[in-house]
Protein 1
Amino acid sequence: MSIPGLSDGADPAGTTFGTQFTREAPQIEARKLQLMDTASGFAKDPVTIPGQQVSPFTDLQNEAFTRTQQGLGKFQPYLNTATQQLLDSTAAYDPTTAYKQYMNPYQNEVISGIEQQFDKMENQANLSAAQAGAFGGARQGIQTAELGRQRADAVGQAQAQNYGQAQQQAQAQFSNQMQRQQTAAQGIAGLGAQQQALQQGDIASAMSAGSVQQQQAQQISDAQYRQQLQQLYEPYQRLGFVSDIYQGMPSSGMSTTMGTSPMTNPLAQAVGTGITGLAGYQALKGS
């Protein structure tokens, strides 16, 4: 049963309900709101990050690259020449022609001298035979034949000696030439390797010096890049600095309490009084 005028939300016990709000002091709250507005403005504006630069190759490095490319295969002509020299040093000796340039150039004079000596000996023998009255006889024939044999032997020995000496000289010269070619092949190949090594040393030196220059240029570029970033984010750092100060400040809050208490209903109070009186009358009557 609902009694008019009686509040359903009333607490018979008379409990008070309230909501408490804790706030900063107005000055501090205003500063914090200003800080939040500033941060919100920063957040709305995008930050353009500068591109980080990479230092290019230096002139020395580019020169090293060029010389490296130009030096590729530079040793090949030396290697080809050395190979040919080495192959030539394996040639076979030709006894049929090699000796000719070492023959005694006065061989004809030697042979002519021998012939003249034997001509004199034959003339002397013929003269002796004629004086003895035996010219044209068997004895003279034998003597003439013997002189002819001796002449042939002498000429043959002279020629053989000249040929033998020429062959020895040719063989010795050929052997020396082959040895010289082998030595030359080794030397030429060594020159090619040495040239390549020296060139690589120059390239390495240029590359090393250029790398130092490039590293320094890169360090300067990186320092400029970091400085640009610091300049871009410097306002944010100041904002964070102020925010840290606000967070570290002691609390200076104030409280505002809002609440409601149930009020007494006059009708309900009258009804309650009537009920109480009725209960007393009935008790008195029953007695």
Note: The helical segments are 26-44, 59-70, 76-88, 107-131, 138-248, 266-286.
Protein 2
Amino acid sequence: MDRREFLEKAGKAGGALLLSSIAGKAVAGEMEQGSVELWSNGSFLQDCVDVSGEASGMVRARVDGVWGDYTTTDLPDEFLEWNLSARIDVLDSIMGMMTGQGGEPPSLAGPHNAAMATRGSRRNDSVLSINNAFKGMGLCPRREIISDKIAFLRENKDVPMPAKIGFLKDMYSDSANFDLTKMISLELYSTPAFETHTFINLMKEPVTSLVFLDSKSYEVRGIGQLVDPEDTSCGVYATQIVEYTNLAHSFFHGEFSRLFPGILVHVLETFDNTPGTGRGVLVRV
């Protein structure tokens, strides 16, 4: 299978995201914003999260108008076993498609996509503040190795796709490569002219619930930190995570005209929602 055939098949999922992006730009206006101005000179600053203590496992957040200290926890072993093995299976399937040895286009189910629930502030097109949207969720390289991984992505952006897949398989082969107290997504669509409801909610109430559905189902609850790529006050590690995620995004999807903001989820709790077996029980680390 050549690159064009691969992209045509994989485009069943990716094309839908592209079309939704185009549609969002077409309808952007006053209704697709909140009632409070959140931008200044093209940038934003989330003032309801303080991560100065995150390296020692503590995040401060303003929830329901009250500041509190929240202790982060690691993603549990059973979640990681499912998440990492499922990611490797997807990469093997993509490689099979590219080499003509079988494989299926990536499913929207699985470890990459999570339904992200947020609350807190109405967008002008809704009477409610609650929102739920599917987000691509990634894992965060631990701080001791992230600089090297950023350098690799910068230096190897033009290598053939099999080498790119090999890089990710190597990363996903060992959970020790990651900071297990965090997950990351990119805020692809929010701009001063168009704001997603997820963005508006997290700027006011930084609580979030992520639900993953596959043969297993998990819910991860945490504090959602919005990170502007230009905001150095977010801390070195947070900006590194956002840079790495942008580079990894471009690594597979091509160059983009800007760096996208990040949604950095500091993990507080993980629940097993698997029907019949998990039933929403807290997974203790």
Note: Helices lie at 3-27, 77-99, 146-155, 161-172, 197-204, 236-253.
Protein 3
Amino acid sequence: MKRPERKPLDRGKLTTERENPRSREIDRASASDIVRIINAEDALVAPAVARERVRIAKAVDVIADRLRGGGRLFYVGAGTSGRLGVLDASECPPTFGTRPSQVQGVIAGGRRALVRAVEGAEDHAEDGARALAKKRISARDVVVGIAACGLTPYVHGALDQARAVGATTIFVTCSPQAVGHIRADIIINPVVGPEVVTGSTRMKAGTATKLVLNTLTTGAMIRMGKTYGNLMVDLRATNEKLRDRSERIVCQETGVNRRRARALLDQADGLGKVALVMALRGVNAAAARSLLEEAGGMVRKAIGAGVKAPKAGGANRQR
């Protein structure tokens, strides 16, 4: 569907492009005062994100629902916004045990743009549409457009493509003036005010975006049973740090010693939630997997009333 013509916005009037009166003389400030000014501006970010919590929560539920149904989550952005999307996507597999294809970041200019600015890559809507078409997105998927200014053509082109196939669309922007020009199912608009360095949206806008993306994926993964309480039980123990964490979680929640925790994790192919259910229900790995499947991946439901008391000296807690 062709986008209706709208009167172009004057970029100079965007909040993200305005001059910040509190930092107008920052080039004359001492290092101590520069740090104080930046820190004071950064303190405005979390409250701005908090004001969007209703829309963020709605997005969390939508993302969790689509992922449960076999859909995927795509972040699309350019520059800092694109890099933040790729970063958040890349951290989901080690943290939550997702498949690499389940959460993906798409950045204008491709992989090269992750480490070096690709000038002009964001200016072509057709490139954004083409990038998503290559991903073969469908109505089961969710596409999150990220643009601090809210106007990036590449991002809008990608969302046009997403809407054309019936995918759910979400847009994250720090510019309130752009909201009326955005067509998306959910618009998340943390307004952090003008930047310390005029137009440098890698600063407050970037921080706000990072907080929003963290909450979207973390919230959705919690809703999908990727944690037990606040413990990371669906991670892939791919290095010594993560193996140690998995063992400590199993020890803490079941009361077994390290040796037993290691054995349980080996039998569970390194999956913490399977090892927990094995220990707490007294079953083998296959039975634990079946219990988890019946419980929709939720450890709390899988252990149910069959939880065994931990061994003496264990650190099992009521959750």
Note: The chain is about 45% helix and 10% strand.
